[in-house]
Every structure is written in structure tokens, then in C-alpha cells.
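Exercise (ungraded).
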Amino acid sequence: MHIFLTILAFVLGGAGGALIAMHLGRPVTAGKPAPYGKRMIPVLIPVLLLGFVLRFLPGLGKVFASVLLAAFCLVCEGTNRGLEKRDGKLLEMAFVFRIPASARMQYIDLPACRASLVRSAQISGIVSALIGAAALVLLDQKNLLISQIVTGVILTAAVTIADIVLAKSRGKKGAAA
Amino acid sequence: MTIEVLDVCKSYDGKSVLKNVNMNISSDAVIAVAGARGSGKTTLIRILLGLEKPDSGQVNLLGDYKYAWINAGTVFQEDRLCPGYTAVENVAMVNAKLSGRVARQSLEKLLPPGAADKPVEELTPAQRRMVCIVRACIIPSDVRFMDEPFFGMTEEEKERSIRYIRETIAHTPLVLTCLPEEVPSFCRVYPLD
């Protein structure tokens, strides 16, 4: 059960972190996004919540919530850092044309932040193992520690493999064009 | 809709770029803002697009207009195309309702066969300008702003692009910028010193 909860929390937290970072990083005023510091607020809130979650949540909810918050923070921060590398002129273009959010994410945001997004997701996998293990220790379920750590390592490996596969498919598409 | 430019002034670091610019862009206007390099053509377009604020003066939208901003198909001074994506993808991305097939059909009116499906960095500079022109013309807009759209084109390519622009956006106002010696014959000239 804790393996399923860890994977679910990792996916939800990571996807939520990336989407919120991209939403907050949209061009709002004259083609410019909100300042970096302001966009980091969603990262800070879960960090503050983490201690509360580890201390007070009952049962395996502790594992789920701590992995969710950790993945959210790390991926949101990584995505925000990557979004800083976007070409400001492309953002102005997106603003002037009122490009749909999905197209902006696909063509401008993701190419700019892919590397740091993948790196932060890989780190999230390892952190999921550690923080999940800490939660299990607090729950006095030390017999589940090994499987928790293996799950984190598998998540990291899965992110790496998915990145390689996506890069190859993009390369093939480009070659075909 | 009419765009009214009233006494617009803009300066950077104490150097005046635009001084008391007045202009009316009505629904049938086809205006060439002609000036030398550094005369403020791009700054004027950026102010019209709301990307810069004038130091003084106003840009007003007159008449029955549904947006708070100017809904403009734009060719920027630089290409501003997304690298790694094809010409078709770069054009189709600007509107969710626009299919790749429609984008390709429009691009094929200007580009040589096969070029529409190449990544934009493999196109010549003139072909990239053509992609920008198609991107600006293909979406429904209330006005078109084109900042030196024919830069780097041969006479034949320029003629072809002008023909495409005139056929595609016959009934929308157009403001383009160019050097004084390159004003297209179908435009009313607005000289910028």
C-alpha cells in the first residue's frame, strides 16, 4: 500500500508543481511574467507544512502527504528555475498573439525548463525514498523501509528512462521532418 | 475601430526616440511608417502593442471595440519563431482553432515546396520572415503591425509577400515599418524623423 501511495503522491505532486509553476510563469504584464521571488511562494508553503504533516498525520497518510509535498516543492522550484531561461522575446510574442496556455507550455515553457524539470524530478525520486522512509520510521514500520527506498530509486530511474525515450522520439520526428 | 495616437513621446536614457507622434489608424488604413534605423519605428510599434508605455501622450481605441488591448497580428523586428519546431507548427501554435493543414496551405503560397515542414532554423532568413508574415496574417485580427517585414528578401520574394499580404488581409488596417527608400507603393507614408 505504501508503494502505491508513494508513486501516486510522486506523480500528483510533480505534475501539480510543474503545472502551477508554468501557470505562475505565464506572461502577464507587457509580455513579462511575475517576478521570480513571487513565483516561489508556492514552494515555501509546502515546506512549512512538511513538519506538520510528519508530526501529526496518522498512518500511511503521513507517507502520502510528505512525498506529495516534497515532490511538489522540488518540481515547482526546478520548473521555476528553468522558466527563467525562456527567451523574453518569445514570451512577448506569446503575449501579443494571446497564444493558448497549452501551446505556450508545449512550444516555449517545456523546451526551456525540460533539463531542470527532469533533474528536479530525479531528485524528487530520491527524496521520496528518504522522506517516505522517515515517515515510516515515525510510524514504527521499519520493515517497510527497504521497499520504500527501492520505490524511490525506481521512480528516479523511470524519470530518466522517460526523458531518454522522449528525447529520442523528438529526434526521430525532427529527422522525419 | 480607430486607433488614435496622440502626442506620443518616448525617450531612453535621456535620448528622445519619439517626439509628439500623432497618427490615426482607421479601419481602411494602410500605413508605412518610414524612417532611418534608430528613428523610433520599433518603439512606436511596441507602444501600439502595449509592450512599452509612452513617457507622455496616449494611444486610444475609438469606436465599438470588444477588447481592452489591440488584437493585432504582428511581425516583430526579429523573427521570434520557436526553434526546433517546423514552420507549420510555428504558425499553427498561435490559434487553437488553426489546423496544421490550413497553416501548411498558407505557408505553401510563399515558401518553396517542402520548406513548411522543415524546422525554422533550417530556413533562410527571408523564408523565416515569410513564416512570420503568414503567422501574422492567418489569425483573425483587428489590425496588423509589421516591423520591417521584408528585411533580407529579394525583390521577387518581396513582391510575392506583398501579394500574399494584400490578398489575405484586404479589409484590415495595416501598419508596417520600413526604410524611407523601401516604402511599398500601396501604402500611405508616415515619415518618422
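Further reading is listed at the end of the chapter. For now, observe: The domain at 2-191 of chain B is CATH 3.40.50.300 (Rossmann fold). The helical segments of chain B are 41-49, 87-92, 100-108, 125-138, 155-168.
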